[in-house]
Amino acid sequence: MIILPAGVIEKMVATASRALPREAVGFLAGREATAESVVELDHIGDDRRFLVTPQSQFLAERQIRQRGLSILALFHSHPDGGTHLSPEDIAFAARQSWLQVVVAIPSADPSGYRLGVWRVQERRATPVEWMREPATSPI
């Protein structure tokens, strides 16, 4: 299970909205099972696949460590798509232990977003329960 405070969800959705029609990508950082921060990554992929620069990932990971947090998940958006992981997403996710959060965001009405959380092991994606928690402080 992962706990997603309202502010974290709002920042993921805002990031995904700004990136439309392209995918957005970033890390969710926190402690134990609670996400506390969204760290955006520089997306250099095409409209339907995310790709980040190694420098962007390195700097984000360093920032997360310096704040005493851990990477809990990688999030990315599926513009006008669903919350399930694509075969490419699964192949990528098989290399890390992070959870995968998908923000399915309709370009016509970003407020109609949906979230899916997945764990990938042995090239199989299984859904992970998540809980929305009211925001207690700004992210």
N-end to C-end Cα span = 21 Å
The CATH architecture term is 3-Layer(aba) Sandwich
Major β-sheet strand ordering: 3-2-4-5-6-7
Q: What overall form do the CA principal axes indicate?
A: globular
Average pLDDT metric = 91
Structural class, from helix and strand content? alpha/beta
Tell how many strands the DSSP assignment holds.
8
- CATH homologous superfamily classification: Cytidine Deaminase, domain 2
Q: How many H/I helical runs?
A: 3
The domain count comes to 1
Give the class-level CATH name. Alpha Beta
Question: Low-confidence parts lasting 5 or more residues at pLDDT below 50?
Answer: none
* Residues in β-strands, percent: 35-45%
What name does the CATH topology carry? Cytidine Deaminase, domain 2
Helix-strand sequence = EHEEHEHEEEE
Main sheet: strands, sense, barrel: 6 strands, mixed
Task: Write up this protein.
The protein has helices at residues 6-19, 54-66, 87-93; strands at residues 2-5, 25-31, 34-40, 70-79, 99-105, 114-121, 124-127, 130-133. The strands form 2 sheets. Strands 3-2-4-5-6-7 form a 6-stranded mixed β-sheet. The chain has a two-stranded parallel ribbon with strand order 1-8. With 139 residues, it is α/β, with parallel strands linked by helices.
Structural features:
139 residues, alpha/beta, six-stranded mixed beta sheet, two-stranded parallel ribbon, 8 strands, globular
